[in-house]
Amino acid sequence: MLERQKDIARAYVVVLVSALLAIATGDAADQPQWGQRYSRNMVSDETGLPDTFDPATGKNIKWSVPLGTQTYSTPVIANGKVLVGTNNDDPRDPRNKGDRGVLMCFNEKDGSFCWQLAVPKLTKSPYWDWPHNGMVSAATVESNRVYMVSNRGEVMCLDLDGMANGNDGPYVDEARHVVPSDAPPIEPGPSDGDIIWLFDMPKELGVRQHDAGHCSILVGRQYLYVCTANGVDDPHTGIECPDAPSLVVFEKTTGRLVAMDNERIGPRIPHGTWAPPSLGKVNGRSLVFFGGGDGVAYAFEAVETSPPKGQVDKLKRVWRFDCDPTGPKEKVQRYLHNKREGPSTIAGMPVFYQNRIYVAAGGDFWVGKARSWLKCIDATQTGDITSSGEVWSYPMRSQCLSTPSICNGLVFIAETGRKIHCLDANTGHEYWTHEVEGEIWGSTLVADGKVYAGTRRGDFWILAADKEKRVISTVQFDDQFSNSPAAANGVLYIAAMTRLYAIQADAR
Q: 31-62 burial, b for 16+ CB within 10 Å, e for fewer?
């Protein structure tokens, strides 16, 4: 009996230590970035998620908290914290007034406020940092570090605990950074964000971001892979910075720039560059996949070592795939607002799945042609694989801003033309489409056998993740959705324009 008790005690210790290690590393059931780690697949392993909920009665609502008035960022959940970007139109800190990009951090358990980082707007013109857009980028969390791109195009490393544990360096000038240049500094307190290091891409790289700094940063080993958001000039008639890079790489501990692409994508960008990268291993080699603003999907060798100080390497391209080879390639801005013909771009993340890349490309939603395709690409090839790399192509009737969700041999993707599609992942065969009444700007999330998606009209849809179409429920909000759902630790998180909801079965 004594030995059995000892065995039980040992087993308990193993389970407890494993749980504590999982919590410490943030790898248990957290959702520390937008999409799955590395692959960017919009699928979660969470189970027991609700089939329906009601924000009016509180049914299955664990907690909800107010945000700003415009929220385009997808929430991420890690180490007991929930982070989401919004604007400052409903200021939490009365000292920090006016239009700002804001990253808010809440307690995962009860939604209590932890801290926020407010970043002033770029004032060069509204087309650099669109008024009231807020902090558009989704954060990426690893251990106790938060990596993100601010509304000013700054690559930031933040302390997940904010200023509650002091002002960690080397960056210590938060008092000045959170206010415009003509305003007095605001001394930070425990409820403010703590910047560890910062890299200003417009200043240091000559990037001309358009409308917003937008990227969900990819962490690969000791490096960060970042989309620069380089785009067109104010009148949308040309590229102000044609030689600026579209994809750059930093050391995650120091913020040192170590590599950038050498594709000169700039002149072929019809509007902007907003697609975050992904990563996968192909034939034993780690590759970084990037959807260019020129409608071309690229694969680069992942960075293995840093160059000598003062040197910046060029990323080595493994392959390129033009998603719209018959579209125009020169003077592409002359097709501004032409809904019938024009160049293509890529807005959603390329998803790596079983040696293939799934990515949506087509006309830019705001200024381009009303046409797009979901492409399935063979990721094992090399060189220019435009002719040889296509596995299948699926046409959609409108533009697409979404990242695919791939699960159990099925692909789910939404388009702005008010449709959700279910396809065969191997062949591209269409199983079903579902019409919704509002545009979808975010992506579908597949979790617990369900497809979750919100619309700009305020409808939140829950469908069965199956070959047979089945609507499980629809929830109506007096608000809009312009981002993607997330799931972590048995809870579904959705950020409407003005409010963040944590939704859990049997919660009230």
A: bbbbbbbbbbbbbbebeebbeebebeeeebbb
Per-residue model confidence (pLDDT) at position 462: 98
Phi, psi (degrees; rounded to nearest 5) at 463 = -120, 160
Amino acid at 174: E
Closest CA to 291 of 360, 342, 355: 360
Mean pLDDT, range 448-474, rounded to an integer: 98
Tokens 């840093």 belong to residue: 306
State how far the Cα of 488 lies from the Cα of 105, in Å rounded to an integer: 16
Place of tokens 């605001």: 186
Instruction: Convert the pLDDT of each residue in 11-27 to its tens digit.
Output: 333 333 333 333 333 34
> Can you give the pLDDT at residue 432?
98
Q: What angle do CA 499, 502, 508 make, to 5 degrees?
A: 110
Res 437: pLDDT: 92
| pLDDT band for position 244 (cuts 50, 70, 90) | very high
Q: How far from the centroid of its chain's Cα atoms is residue 321's Cα? A: 22
41 and 450 in contact (C-beta within 8 Å)? no
3-state SS record for 418-435 = CEEEEEECCCCCEEEEEE
413: left (phi over 0), alpha (psi -120 to 50) or beta: beta
pLDDT digits (tens, 9 = 90+) for 27-44: 449 999 999 999 999 999
The H-or-E segment that residue 21 falls in is helix 2-25
Model confidence band, residue 6 (pLDDT cutoffs 50, 70, 90):
very low
Q: Which domains are assigned to the chain?
A: 222-335+343-363+385-393 (2.40.128)
Mean pLDDT confidence for 441-467: 98
Angle ∠(29,191,112) on CA atoms, nearest 5: 50
